Amino acid sequence: MIRLLALLLSVCGFAAAQPRQTENVIFVMTDGLRWQEVFRGIDPLLINKESGVGNPDALRKLYWREDLNERRSALMPFLWNTMVKNGQIYGNRDAGSDAYVTNGFNFSYPGYNETLTGAPDARVNSNENIPNKNVTVLEWLHDKPAFKGKVAAFGAWDVISAITNGARGGFPANAGYDAFKATTNPTIALLNRLKVETGVWDEEPFDAYPFYTALEYMKAAKPRVLYISLGETDEWAHDGKYELYLKSAHRVDDYLRVLWETVQSTPGYRDHTTLIYSPDHGRGDAPEGWKHHGEKYPDSRYIWMAFMGPDTPALGERKNVPAVTQSQVAATLAGLLGQDYNAANAKAGQAITDVRKH
Ligand SMILES: [Zn+2]
User: Fold this and answer.
1) Which of 103, 93, 149 minimizes the C-alpha distance to 301?
2) Does residue 293 contact residue 282 with C-beta atoms inside 8 Å?
3) Which of 8, 48, 83, 340 is the most buried (most CB within 10 A)?
4) SS3 category, 273
């Protein structure tokens, strides 16, 4: 009898459209990581002392492979071997897939604002640490009863707390060198302390601090929407340190693996969580432009975006597809959670339909 019921249920399940499975979203951004490294791997024009590589042979050994697929997997193994294999990535300009920023500035605050609100805003024209006037999809979700107390944002760059505006929204938005206080345990206390005792940049600590703080919070509070913005990829590139830029990209890739393993070993998250990964802008070309981005570098508008989760068809690396824009990410994220951001926000870019089967 039970077997018969199970059979009936499975048949009905197949007959009707399978319901949406995503209950949670983890969205990781890494600042200014170029599509060139993501899709082509290490750039051979930059494996030299002039580009801040102390030991070119050692770096080549780590990340250079003759074969393109092997090369990019060496740099970002989780992205290529797990996320793309089971999900989708947009933005390989070598394969007829463009992903780009529409705000025209090609720098951070406008890019985070476009990503998280779903629309470019000409008034958001500086990186000044001022509270975002716009409501992001994080705050919009948090205003719904199903997401109250279930949204959190973590950033390396101190301006991330102002951009996500958790102060107005009433959710944790921790960034820069600020101590995280929404939850506490000995690990978070130590992270808070080490964060202010280390670091090389005024505006952001190393990525490890926001990442491990977010991971602790994820395990303790089980947020439904977890946003993590990391910053080393941008800082090292501005500093002209290609080796450290690549190693940061590789480390962020491993953070994604850790997040995904945590998801898949945690009831409530397992098989009900979608992972999204993108940068806020691109950068210029080798041998000099890669350090920079902004209006003077028109090609720094090109980005990439990856999705993996129970509702995303495993179409892998997208090739010869219509362009997608940064402004589409917010509605896509909300849609995966069954929420129609486009209906609520007329300015927002449309959700990317291919990313969701239901
Ligand atoms: Zn940036």
Assistant:
1) 103
2) yes
3) 83
4) strand
pLDDT tens-digit series, residues 269-321: 999 999 999 999 999 999 999 999 999 999 999 999 999 999 999 999 999 99
Cα(131)–Cα(148) distance, integer angstroms: 21
Q: Round the CA-based radius of gyration of the chain to a whole number and report it.
A: 20
> CA 151, CA 227: separation in Å to the nearest integer?
8
How far does the centroid of ligand 1 lie from the alpha carbon of residue 100, in Å? 14
Whole-angstrom distance, CA of residue 86 vs CA of residue 190: 36
Q: Which of 5, 30, 86, 19 is nearest to 204 (CA)?
A: 30
Sign of dihedral through CA atoms 145, 149, 150, 155? positive
| Structural domains in the chain, sorted by start | 22-355 (3.40.720.10)
Ligand 1 centre from 192 Cα, in Å?
A: 24
| Identity of the residue numbered 121 | D
- Taking every pair of Cα atoms in the chain, the longest distance, rounded to a whole number of angstroms, is 73
pTM of the complete model beyond 0.85: yes
Closest listed residue to residue 354, CA positions, set 66, 21, 88: 88
Residue 349 CA to residue 338 CA, distance in Å, equals 16
Q: How far is the CA of 319 from the centre of ligand 1 (A)?
A: 26
* Percentage with pLDDT > 90 across the chain: 94
E strands, the chain, in order? 24-30, 88-90, 99-100, 151-155, 173-175, 225-230, 273-278, 305-308, 316-317, 324-325
Distance 137 CA to ligand 1 centre (A): 19
Of 160, 98, 169, 172, give the one whose Cα is nearest residue 130: 160
Using the mean position of ligand 1's atoms as its centre, give its distance from the Cα of residue 280 in Å.
5
Tokens (6 digits) for 54: 């102390």
Interval between CA 287 and ligand 1 midpoint (Å): 20
Rounded Cα gap, residues 159 and 29, in angstroms: 14
CA of 109 to the centre of ligand 1 (A): 7
